[in-house]
Fold this sequence. Notes:
It is a single chain. Helices cover about 30% and strands about 25% of the residues. The protein is α/β, with parallel strands linked by helices. Helix 5 packs across helix 6 (about 125-135) and helix 6 (about 125-135) runs parallel beside helix 7. The chain is elongated and about 80 Å long. Mean pLDDT is about 95; it is low at about 1-10.
Amino acid sequence: MSMNPESHESLEDSARLSGWEPDVWIELSQGALAHNVALFRSLLAPGCRFMAVVKANAYGHGMVPIAQAALAAGADWLGVFHAGEGLTLRDHGVTAPILVLGPTPPESMRRAVDAGLCLTVASPGAADALVRACAGQTGARAHLKVETGTHRQGFDAAQLINAAQQLVAAGIAVEGLYTHYADIEDTTDHTYAESQLARFSELRAQLAAEGVSVPLSHTACTAAAILFPATHFDMVRVGIGLYGLWPSKETRVSAGMLGRDQIELRPVMTWKTRIRQIKTVPAGSYIGYGRTFRTTHDSRVAILPVGYADGYDRHFSSRAHVLVRGVRAPVLGRICMNLTMIDVTDIADAAPGDEVVLLGQSGDEAVQAADLGSLAGTIHYEIVTRAAPCAPRRWVP
Ligand SMILES: *Cc1c(COP(=O)(O)O)cnc(C)c1O
């Protein structure tokens, strides 16, 4: 498998810094990613396509390496948000079909179409703009997004039929029809999602009755892909599950209730740094800005070269744990911009140069993205998406 593990500008992109050991880095498990793709594939009927959603730098994992590895592991399509992300993938030699999930500005449409990107069209204005951008040219492919209850992007029934007929008349292929669920990962009561699915099926039938047959219908994100085969249609769009994370506790509980709890996702990301210094501080010493933590006993304090500038959220101050030699070490006091202090008093062997796991597994212990999300008052999607944006990504088996 040929893949470039560097997704974007990073320390290792500079020749001057080649061989330089980074302070912070992210390891991507190739085995975990391949396992997750195979797992989702096993849930799909034959012929159902698998879209790997790699928007937001592949949820912080690294767009180019994840896209290449997901395709090698059996994904059929890639989903990005911005057309520019799709162009970057093309520049890296990715030839697979790519759907742009977000709105493409009219002035970028021609270039996106020329690069073979499939564009989401979700408003009458976007349909007009695409027809104008593609005047006299062929090869454009559109996926129409319909409103079923999220009230974010999407056509209502009348607009849908007009737009579909307008695109077809202009020689633009209406290749896909899709929608997105509002609360499928937020609850174990799926009544609202069921109503969205029913609305989608209705709109799809109306379009067919008008003589527009669309080859690819798709509605399922990770939670829907796991819980409800009826949402799969011709393709599923999997983001968080591809990275080995459950969408939510509610999805896990729902899977249990549906007898689907044998599903095992494997986290792809491990976020690491190293101990740079260890010092002994006497009982009664303050640690860090604001003097929010004071030692109650003589302590060994390790200094880590990572902070909120790296996405290690300031809400983790005095609350999170990191893993040193497979043992939990608590964060002491406030997370700084580029530094974090931890307590290694009870980890006798801890030494400068030791690897530290900020997120992921070490020995039998794990720091989970969901736990860090709770500490920061947010969801784990945000924790991984904002992890160390400038740090190198490296494949591990
Ligand atoms: C981000 C996104 C997904 C993926 O959702 P997950 O819950 O991460 O699987 C699917 N569809 C659309 C339209 C999205 O924007």
